[in-house]
Design a protein that fits this description.
heterotrimer; A alpha/beta; B alpha/beta; C alpha/beta; A: alpha/beta; elongated; C: alpha/beta; Rossmann fold; 2 domains; 7-stranded mixed beta sheet; 13 helices; 41% helix; 19% strand
Chain lengths: 581, 300, 384
């Protein structure tokens, strides 16, 4: 910083016009007509992640080769990265802006990589609960219940989880076969939750060996019993021997119990459960034929699952609806009607309309019905209402009885693992507000990712960090000059013939080098990742490098508002607005 | 590559030094200011830079101030090559072979009025680094045409009713024919390339010439925020290809993978807004021909 | 050591003895033998000097501006068109206060081409802020160069040392050439006041607004005002070492003369003979040699002309529209003085036309015969 010179006269001046000082006194910031500023915006992946993961941040950590840091970023929101990396339907990838350039980032593969990479995870997690704080009971140890337990434990609340089965995990253990989600991965992540001080008690069922009276000592209750009852078809012959419910079947398979199955097994349904059933049947050495009443386009099961099923030998027949089950000597004869597609229904899918007099018969040895899940509600007390197949709850998860909250498949028709984890987290936040008499609506507003509904608990705990403008970054706001097309990395998959021999995991985790390659494709939409492009191009050296949370700072004393940083930022993390005068 | 954050990539770390300083008088978005800032990062502390008359006679500020943190000698318009020859001679006599003598001339002071002095110095293979900061016109005096102004561009002395009739002078060709050890083109949208070339040129003895394209928002009639983008499009449309010439003979062409038609480059600039479709085609034809010529020279 | 050398060779010796470090020049008749001579002397290892064989005179001066800013002693030589071509840079050298010494061999400026003696080239640069010193003989040429560096480096203004084309430049005369040691004792190495230092970077010749420009120009004038005293001191020291002096002006002839013949350059030698002859014939006459033209030695001339009623000025130059330049400057200098003799401005010898003793006698005759000049410009030896 040089002072300004004034000369009384020639006698004080040097002989020649040689410079005596610098121009730092000339605050060219006064020239500005527009002002750039850093404001992280919401990347579409995070906005559509039901868990509320900070996807861009964890990917950037991978790029920095800080795998441990990446794992910690994920665990701010999600206790189950290893699970989600395998089974989540990754809506993040459907929204990934990269798909407009070449292919979306394989976010699920990266999440899985991070979860699998870090060893000695048990060393990194410590006991969090503090006795003396409000005690919370959680009914159900599925993803919703355990997510809620995890977040409550982080908030230091002592939690007891009551699980009716003999092992924790809920649908993660019961519903999802181990070739998709290996047991050791699930158990590893559940163990971490327990090591935080969460108490899981198995073999206890609310309404049987646990009553509402028993729960009086708890300051709040979270109910996440899920939808674990199979929906019956309501056709004659359904109750005969050799006709199973899909969820029951999977529960037996996943517990390692023996099941009596004939050679040719028919499966009715089109969702993930039906597909899981069919693929499990194949692995038990039997033939599987899946009957679905609509066409392939309307199948709710994940596309990749369906493809894998077909590769493994599952046969699928579309536009077929069984109307009666005949049984003779163990053989089932399904009387079916052919269907055609009509107008779209409320779910947006075309309605199946039976074609009259198109009856025909399919013969199978065993039949498994996987046509939907229903909730168990026999234990509901007064005040808890159900409607449309779910338990009604407020936005904060409160279920109509003071101190009782609910979430997961029980309370929503969006029955995915990610939604369940997200709802558990939201409920934990709601309970924290309930205990501290804070306005949970206001807290949710503050922690929304984009316009919601996902929320970020990290932002609740660290309000000054990770500020994000709710604006969702569009592809057009990125500067594509900085990105070249590059192929998407794929996890390697075992060939079908090998896969069907057992229930071992069929895909393998990306190796480090490929994970880093893939992470390098991430645009980091709307989020400054310290690439220094702005710093390089500022004509007035007015972008200063900083350490810590805010990697760059604009020196408004000198910034002339040219807007080059705004145009060049590859990720649209800079905003330009008119300078107020 | 700037813009990605790959720890393992061969990213050039820019030196932290800011020898251009702040508070200088360049227009907002001045391409030359970016060029100068990057150049000074590459050239280091021991440099004496000669400035024949150009925007840079004004930009560093008025006496008694200068935003520069290097030794700068302002000189007559004509005299870039000559003044630098003298400075070099003085340093040689004093036994200083550490300090780099550089010239920063505009396109006017290089292609036109300064051509003689530069040619004379290049023929003598004077030991300095000559940087031509080309903004394609006499911008300091208010956007008059120079022989560096591209064909059909508007300037105040080539108005829309009679835009520039002659193509841009091939300055690189002229310098190559002097058989100087090193000549190269560079521009601000490729900062690592610019810095690498400056560092390479710095280490060579004899006359080195770097032709820098620096977009000028007021002169090219572009909004200040696209200065860097325009410079990138200039390369990608092959209007301003990046290449090096060693000893006047060996051409090294840097092929840009993502090519765009010249129209993409021209349509963003007000100084070309009067062009008709057929004129744009004509320009595309010439650009393509020039590129082929360059490729042929690179092959020999 | 005494040698019989031409004016141009004397220049070369003067430059070598002054231990000039950078020379930059472009050839033009009649300066060429200076650079040829210098090249030989440098190549013979006499001096560790860089010689830039630039491609024009403008570049020659620009290169010296660069070199002088770089802190070394430098030199160039030129003539007529070359000097005119350098004009822009002459302003720059003085504005930048660089102690550059240049020899200009007085030659006419075309068109038409004319390579012979004429003072119009140097005098048309009189407003550029350079000190101008005119030489009568080859010894004076060499001595003036040595003194020029002392003067230039003291007041920090550039100095032009001037000699006539061919009459001096290519004419041999005996010259006493001092030794390197003797000159070293007289002329120490150059110590620049604003040296280039990488650790303390500075910008030179920074653009200056009306707020301060005026004061920088004022300083140049003030430096010019120091020149007479500095010249005196330098001459005194030179005399004490080398026993030769010249003065800003030199009066020869009668103390109280009726007519004073003012000349500069080689014409003075002719004038000396004529004055001597006329004095022997009983005419009360004296001659005044003007060595220093810039700054104009008004005070010295004022003292020299006391009591004289008439001044005859021989101008080997022409400023079209006003006449001889020495005469014009003289009139301006004397205007404020109490004694204002009549000034007879003779213009003669342009383009190398010989100024013979007969012509000088004609001028003296005319001056003696008239109380006032009949015309502003008196054309001497013109074929009408």
């Amino acid at each position: 910083m040089s002072k300004q010179f004034t000369f009384k006269g020639a006698s004080e001046m040097p002989e020649i016009p040689i410079s005596l000082g610098f121009m730092d006194w000339n605050k060219t910031g006064a020239w500005r007509a527009q002002r750039p500023y850093y404001l992280d915006k919401t990347p579409p992946c995070s906005a559509y992640c039901p868990v509320g993961n900070d996807i861009v941040s964890f990917i950037q950590k991978i790029l920095e080769e800080d795998m441990d840091g990446a794992w910690r970023v994920l665990r701010e929101e999600n206790p189950f990265p290893g699970v989600c990396g395998r089974v989540c339907f990754h809506p993040c990838e459907s929204r990934c802006n990269r798909s407009f350039l070449d292919e979306p980032i394989a976010i699920h593969a990266l999440e899985r990589f991070v979860a699998d990479f870090s060893e000695d995870q048990g060393q990194k997690v410590k006991r969090e609960v503090e006795e003396g704080k409000e005690r919370v009971a959680i009914i159900g140890s599925g993803p919703a219940g355990l997510s809620c337990a995890y977040h409550l434990a982080r908030l230091h609340y002592p939690v007891t989880v009551f699980e009716s089965f003999s092992l924790p995990g809920g649908m993660l253990r019961m519903g999802i076969p181990s070739y998709r989600l290996p047991r050791e991965v699930l158990e590893r992540e559940i163990a971490l939750i327990e090591s935080m001080g969460v108490n899981i008690r198995t073999g206890i069922t609310l309404g049987q060996n646990l009553t509402w009276q028993d729960l009086k000592d708890y300051s709040a209750i979270f109910i996440a019993t899920g939808a674990h009852l199979g929906r019956p078809l309501g056709i004659p012959g359904e109750k005969r021997r050799g006709v199973f419910q899909g969820l029951e079947f999977l529960k037996k398979v996943n517990s390692g119990k023996k099941i009596e199955l004939g050679e040719k097994v028919g499966i009715i349904g089109g969702g993930n459960t039906a597909i899981d059933v069919a693929r499990s049947v194949i692995r038990l050495g039997k033939k599987a034929i899946l009957l679905y009443r609509r066409s392939k386009e309307e199948m709710p099961a994940f596309e990749e699952e369906v493809s894998e099923a077909l590769e493994e030998g599952v046969k699928i027949r579309y536009l077929v609806n069984p109307i009666r089950i005949h049984s003779k000597d163990g053989l089932k004869r399904l009387e079916c009607l052919r269907m055609k597609l009509g107008e779209k229904d409320e779910t947006g899918r075309r309605k199946p309309i039976p074609i009259p007099n198109s009856n025909f018969f399919i013969e199978v040895d065993s039949l498994i019905i996987a046509a939907g899940e229903e909730i168990e509600f026999s234990y509901f007390p007064k005040g808890m209402e159900r409607k449309g197949g779910i338990l009604l709850t407020q936005r904060d998860g409160s279920a109509g009885v003071k101190g009782v909250f609910a979430g997961g498949d029980l309370t929503s028709t969006q029955r995915t693992v990610a939604h369940a984890i997200g709802s558990g987290k939201k409920a934990a936040l709601a309970m924290d507000c309930y205990f501290k008499e804070k306005d949970s609506e206001e807290v949710f507003r503050r922690t929304l990712i984009g316009e919601g509904p996902p929320i970020s608990i990290f932002r609740y705990l660290h309000p000054d960090e990770r500020r994000m403008d709710p604006h969702l970054v569009r592809f057009e706001e990125l500067n594509l000059d900085y990105f070249e097309p590059a192929p998407r990395q794929k996890e390697s998959k075992l060939p079908p013939k090998v896969r069907i021999k057992d229930f071992k995991e069929i895909t393998s985790t990306l190796p480090s080098s490929l994970a880093i390659e893939e992470a390098g494709r991430c645009f980091s939409c709307g989020t400054c990742n310290g690439c220094e492009t702005c710093y390089v191009f500022c004509p007035d050296a007015s972008i200063l490098k900083r350490e810590g949370i805010f990697l760059r700072e604009i020196d408004y004393d000198f910034c002339k508002g040219c807007g080059i940083c705004f145009t060049e930022c590859p990720r649209g993390a800079i905003t330009l607005k008119e300078e107020a005068r | 590559m700037v813009g990605t954050k790959k720890v393992n990539s061969n990213k050039i770390t820019l030196p932290e030094v800011e020898n251009l300083g702040r508070g200088h008088l360049a227009c907002a978005g001045c391409g030359a200011a970016i060029a100068m800032r990057l150049t000074l990062k590459a050239l280091g502390e021991r440099v004496i830079m000669v400035f024949p008359a150009s925007c840079w006679s004004i930009i560093p500020g008025f006496w008694p101030y200068s935003s520069f943190r290097i030794n700068a000698i302002h000189a007559g318009f004509v005299t870039g090559g000559a003044t630098a020859s003298g400075v070099r001679a003085a340093l040689d006599v004093k036994g200083d072979d550490d300090t780099l003598v550089a010239v920063w001339g505009g396109d006017g002071g290089t292609f036109d009025i300064g051509l003689q002095a530069l040619s004379g110095a290049a023929e003598r293979n004077e030991d300095f680094l000559y940087i031509c900061n080309d903004n394609e016109g006499y911008m300091n005096t208010g956007t008059q045409r120079s022989s560096a102004t591209p064909l059909m561009a508007w300037t105040t002395t080539t108005p829309v009713s009679q835009p520039k009739e002659n193509p841009k002078k091939d300055m690189m060709g002229i310098m190559a024919d002097h058989q100087i050890p090193y000549a190269a083109t560079a521009t601000i949208a490729y900062p690592e390339d610019l810095i690498q070339k400056m560092e390479k040129a710095k280490r060579i003895r004899g006359t080195r010439f770097i032709h820098l394209l620096s977009p000028c928002p007021p002169g090219w009639r572009i909004p200040s925020e696209i200065s860097v983008k325009i410079s990138r499009l200039a390369v990608r449309s092959r209007v301003f290809p990046l290449y090096e010439i060693e000893n006047g003979r060996r051409y090294t062409l840097q092929e840009e993978r993502r090519i765009v038609p010249v129209k993409e480059y021209l349509k963003l600039q007000g100084r070309f807004s009067h062009l008709s479709e057929s004129q744009i085609e004509e320009i595309q034809k010439r650009v393509d021909e020039a590129w082929e010529r360059l490729k042929r020279r690179a092959r020999c | 050591m005494k040698k019989v050398i031409t004016g141009n060779q004397a220049v070369a010796y003067g430059v070598i003895l002054s231990r000039v470090e950078v020379v930059s020049a472009y050839p033009i008749t009649p300066q060429t033998t200076i650079v040829e001579e210098l090249s030989e002397l440098i190549a013979n290892g006499r001096l560790h000097t860089r010689f830039l064989k630039v491609e024009s005179e403008h570049s020659a001066m620009a290169a010296l501006i660069g070199a002088s800013t770089g802190g070394v002693r430098c030199f160039t030589a030129t003539s007529s068109h070359g000097l005119a071509y350098m004009h822009e840079m002459l302003h720059w050298a003085s504005g930048a206060r660089l102690p550059i010494v240049m020899v200009n061999v007085n030659r006419a400026i075309g068109p038409p081409w004319n390579i012979w003696s004429d003072q119009s080239d140097s005098l048309s640069q009189r407003d550029t802020g350079w000190i101008q010193l005119y030489c009568e003989n080859n010894q004076e040429v060499l001595d003036t160069i040595l003194q020029a560096y002392r003067i230039a480096e003291t007041v920090r203004l550039p100095v032009m040392v001037i000699l006539d084309a061919f009459v001096l430049s290519h004419t041999s005369e005996p010259v006493e050439i001092p030794s390197m040691e003797e000159v070293e004792a007289f002329l120490p190495p150059y110590c620049p006041p604003y040296p280039l230092e990488p650790q303390e970077p500075k910008s030179y010749s920074v653009i200056t607004t009306p707020e301060y420009f005026f004061e920088f120009r004022y300083k140049i004038q003030k430096a010019m005002e120091e020149v007479p005293e500095v010249c005196q001191k330098v001459e005194d020291e030179f005399y004490s070492r080398f026993k030769r002096r010249y003065g800003a002006v030199e009066k020869y002839g009668d103390e109280q003369a009726e007519v004073l013949l003012l000349t500069s350059g080689t014409v003075t030698s002719t004038s000396r003979i004529v004055i001597k002859k006329w004095r022997e014939e009983g005419v009360n006459i004296a001659g005044l040699k003007i060595k220093r033209f810039r700054p104009f030695p008004a005070k010295e001339i004022g003292e020299a002309i006391k009591g004289t009623k008439k001044l005859a000025v021989i101008d080997r130059n022409l400023s079209a529209g006003v006449g001889g330049i020495f005469a014009q400057e003289l009139k301006a200098a004397l205007y404020s003085q109490e004694e204002r003799p009549a000034i007879f401005g003779f213009v003669s010898g342009l383009g190398g036309r010989d100024i013979t003793p007969e012509l000088l006698e004609e001028a003296i005759q005319y001056t003696l015969g008239h109380s006032q000049p009949k015309e502003e410009i008196l054309w001497l030896g013109l074929k009408r």
